[in-house]
């Protein structure tokens, strides 16, 4: 089962126009990553096709397998 679930209707999200989209709700959805240790928002670092996360509060890299991801409906 996919880990990318709409926070409103719990349908699987699709990837559309460089972002997540719920086909059922017809809304854009954002994904935010939080530190598993201090719960601060993480900065996403991308290089060579790989994504890593950095916590400015802890001042260290965090494994993407440990990151807490939260999906929110985008309001324009």
Describe this structure in words.
The chain has a single domain (13-73), classed as Rubredoxin-like, CATH 2.10.290.10. The protein is built from no helices and seven strands. It has strands spanning 14-16, 19-22, 27-34, 43-47, 50-55, 60-62, 68-73. The strands form two sheets. Strands 1-2-3-7 form a four-stranded antiparallel beta sheet, with no helix packed on it. Strands 4-5-6 form a three-stranded antiparallel beta sheet, with no helix packed on it.
Q: Tell me the domain tally.
A: 1
Structural class: mainly beta
Q: How many β-strand runs?
A: 7
Mean pLDDT: 91
Describe the global form.
elongated
The CATH architecture designation is: Ribbon
Q: Give the SSE order as H and E letters.
A: EEEEEEE
Distance between the termini: 29 Å
Question: What labels would you give this structure?
Answer:
mainly beta; Rubredoxin-like; 3-stranded antiparallel β-sheet; 76 residues
């Amino acid at each position: 089962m996919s880990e990318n679930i709409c926070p409103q209707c719990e349908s699987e999200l699709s990837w559309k126009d460089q972002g997540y989209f719920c086909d059922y709700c017809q809304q854009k959805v954002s994904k935010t990553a939080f530190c598993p240790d201090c719960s601060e928002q993480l900065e996403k670092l991308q290089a060579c096709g790989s994504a890593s996360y950095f916590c400015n509060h802890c001042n260290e890299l965090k494994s993407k397998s440990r990151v807490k991801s939260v999906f929110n409906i985008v309001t324009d």
